[in-house]
Amino acid sequence: MNFSYAPDKLAAIRRTVTDDRLGPYLAMAEGNVETAIRLYEVNTRLCADFYGPLQGLEVTVRNSIDEQFRTTFGQEWTDLKTIKLQHAQCQDVYNALSDVSEEDGQPRDYTHGDVIANLRFGFWVGVLGPKNETEIWRKCLWRAFPHRPKGTERKAVQGALNSIRRLRNRVAHHCRIIHRDLVRDHETILEVAGWVCPDTRDWIASLSTFDPSIIPVAQQALPMDGMPATDPMPPATPLPTEEKPTREGRPRLGLKG
Q1: Residue 237: its pLDDT value, please?
Q2: Contact partners, residue 32, CB within 8 Å, separation at least 6
Q3: Are 20 and 226 in contact (CB under 8 A)?
Q4: DSSP string, 37-81
Q5: Using an 8 Å Cβ cutoff, are 215 and 154 in contact?
Q6: Of 83, 87, 140, 186, which has the fewest CB atoms closer than 10 Å, so is most exposed?
Q7: What was the pLDDT predicted at 231?
Q8: What is the pLDDT of residues 21-33, one digit of tens each?
């Protein structure tokens, strides 16, 4: 379907999307509404392109951690009787159990897998935190990333996953991501997936639709979300882009713990 970027249609889009949301794009476009909306469209496409790699990584990491928890703390570790987690992580488990144990106010049967799928990504990043170094990481979680480079310890693993968590949350909440180093983000997703399973990493990479050539060159000039929009400027001109090559073969982050 072709869309006409006529002034009245641009005004309608600006009104429904709101200047709070369009503000960073309007600032980047020096107030030109059409260019700002086209930047917003690019951001939407990039978010869609990251959905698959993020999904692949999250499922891979949570299942690998769960496998080590079941091996070390028992098949029903989510009852929290055999594993020592921090308060916030215990609350995450309680919330997941509550979510899966009933539907429409009625009790329902559920499986261990249902609980794992309902634990938020922040839980899996949190269990890699410094307070779990002795009780969790040294006991078992280091085995969840068997292919990480030598010298890559808990701090580096959590740091990489926490950066991905922030990207994931922005994608999930339809926020701006074109201000980030998305090429690096994509490499990090694949790298961490490879720390768990190189074959799964290659599968995720083969399905990825991420195209760095559509990232605006001027992304570094974007202000923070929430800045006020400026008034419209003269008609838009096409925003230049350049292709940013990705690394050949398996990317390496060189992270140190």
Answers
A1: 37
A2: 26, 232, 233, 234, 235, 236
A3: yes
A4: HHHHHHHHHHHHHHHHHHHHHHHHHHHHHHHHHHHHH-TTGGGSS
A5: no
A6: 87
A7: 38
A8: 999 999 999 999 9
User: Measured between alpha carbons, how far is residue 19 from residues 14, 174, 238 in Å?
Assistant: 7, 15, 21
Phi/psi-derived region of residue 80, left when phi > 0, alpha when psi is between -120 and 50, beta in every other case? left
Cα separation, 151 vs 94, whole angstroms:
35
**In this structure, which amino acid lies at residue 160?**
A
Where residue 161 falls (left for φ over 0; alpha for ψ -120 to 50; beta otherwise) is alpha
CA–CA separation, 55 and 40 (whole Å): 23
Q: Is the pLDDT of residue 217 over 90?
A: no
The token duo for 47 is: 């978010």
The pLDDT score that the predictor gives to residue 105 is 85
CA distance 185 to 236: 30
- Flag whether the pTM goes above 0.70: yes
Give which of 57, 50, 253 is closest to 155, Cα–Cα. Answer: 253
Q: Confidence class of residue 160 from pLDDT cuts 50, 70 and 90?
A: very high
